[in-house]
């Protein structure tokens, strides 16, 4: 029995235990338990179930009035134990961010909203005596929120806007300004002597910030060249960030959904741009190929650890990769860009592209994947169910 099997037993037991309590009297602890269950379901590939569990947690949180709690301060308390009010606000913020992110990734409606004015700012990097203070986990969340995450609900609602170009440009410029003004403690540097969790947590924040830019422009990649190129570059930044995060991740954590969601969406977009618009961004093709190959290797490593999401995404990405090679075929050999990866697998993949009728093989399987919400299409087309048999 693996640790993941034991984790499944504990999660199922926790759900049964929680169901024995009266639903007419929700508790904050119960909401936290539902959020943890949703996290577990996403990690084990039950993504749609996770979305429903998150919805239950949100409704219970609303029953408790967490969405109505006024912030005690725009800078959170320095006390060691937060008040119940502050804890409630913290939980509601996480529920809102999950709701917005899953709504965009899966193409689902949102059921929460939050004003940035009601969200505390990160604490100063120095304490009241002027001494350097190491950032705390919540500092990273709040930093990411005020840099970019706060726009997720606006991005989700862009389909209701008649002229999307104005808000897209405004959000884009604001996010770029915020990125340029990130606190000094977020800079990419050696983290020796700092808390061991900080480096990976910051890299996760960078992935999520790039995802916001990516998600902002992705719905318009077929209509507007500027959005297409911006989304492409944000996707490339996401893949590079995911690579750095993977290098800091222990194999025991390879089942985490966070190592698949952003990678899959970004890989689909950059490959799709080269397939649909082969005469654009040709100078980026070598970098695209390198990022896709490294991404495929990461997915294979996750697949070997029985990551269900990676197993499902890998088959799609490999076929899309071959499709891309068939459309934009470089003169230099594929192995020239391999670096430390196993070039033989990609050499074989490249050879398979020659003389192959990709329109016949890949349609309709990949037809829907090339639309703005690939994770939703992957779920809707049943790849997770097929791969888990």
Automatic annotation (TrEMBL):
Gene Ontology annotations of biological process type: DNA-templated transcription
Superkingdom in the source lineage: Eukaryota
Record's keyword terms, sorted: DNA-binding, Nucleus, Transcription, Transcription regulation
Domain Xylanolytic transcriptional activator regulatory residues, every copy: 50-128
One annotated GO molecular function: DNA binding
SMART domains noted in UniProt: Fungal_trans
InterPro entries: Fungal_SecMet_Regulators, XnlR_reg_dom
Residue ranges, annotated region (Disordered): 116-137
A family per Pfam: Fungal_trans
Protein name: Xylanolytic transcriptional activator regulatory domain-containing protein
Species whose genome carries this gene: Fusarium oxysporum NRRL 32931
